[in-house]
Amino acid sequence: MLVDGRGVPLSLVVTGANRHDVSQLEAVLDAIMVERPSPQIRRHKHLCADAGYTGAPALQVIEEHGYIAHVKGRGQEAKELKRVPEKKARRWVVEVAHSWFNRFRKLLVRYEKLDRSFLALNHLAASIMAFRKIKSDENIIYG
Fold first, then answer.
1. Where are the domains positioned within the chain?
2. Is the dihedral of CA 9, 102, 21, 19 positive or negative?
3. Whole-prediction pTM
4. Is 116 helix (H, G, I), strand (E, B) or coil?
């Protein structure tokens, strides 16, 4: 799963549980649903990842898709936050998005036999999560 800085899912790929995340990196980057608008001022795209993406093949895939890689281990980011407390944690946004997916009980344990059914339910959950991020006076989802 790939999320933006607010935790809104941009893409996800359904695979077997025995597949490592780094082997699906290219598929996740290719599956981005929302095209990034071209800003007036040139800005770079940054991709924050954990230590599992430190290998040369993963870094090459990240660079081929036009991202600047920020690959840090678990302790490295915590040390940087202690030095500069006002700095915002980057990698934990993905972990929060995973916990939001776990709030959808239908997705917590996979009972669907078909990949397309499970993928459709994940896309529905991702769209609800994105909709909840929209600032509004009325909350339509919760009633």
1. 2-132
2. negative
3. 0.74
4. helix
pLDDT at 142 exceeding the cut of 70 = no
pLDDT tens track for 2-24: 888 788 888 888 888 888 888 88
Q: Tokens for 59, please give them.
A: 């870094």
pLDDT (tens digit per residue) in 89-107: 666 778 888 888 889 988 8
Distant-in-sequence, close-in-space partners of 118: CB < 8 Å, separation ≥ 6:
14, 107, 110, 112
**DSSP assignment string, 15-78:** --TTS-GGGGHHHHHHT--SPPPPPSS---EEEEE-GGG-SHHHHHHHHHTTEEEEE--HHHHH
Q: Is 61:25 a contact under the CB 8 Å cutoff? A: yes
Place of tokens 């607010």: 6
Contacts 24+ apart (CB under 8 A), 129-137: 129/7, 129/8, 129/9, 129/97, 129/100, 129/101, 130/8, 130/9, 133/6, 133/7, 133/8
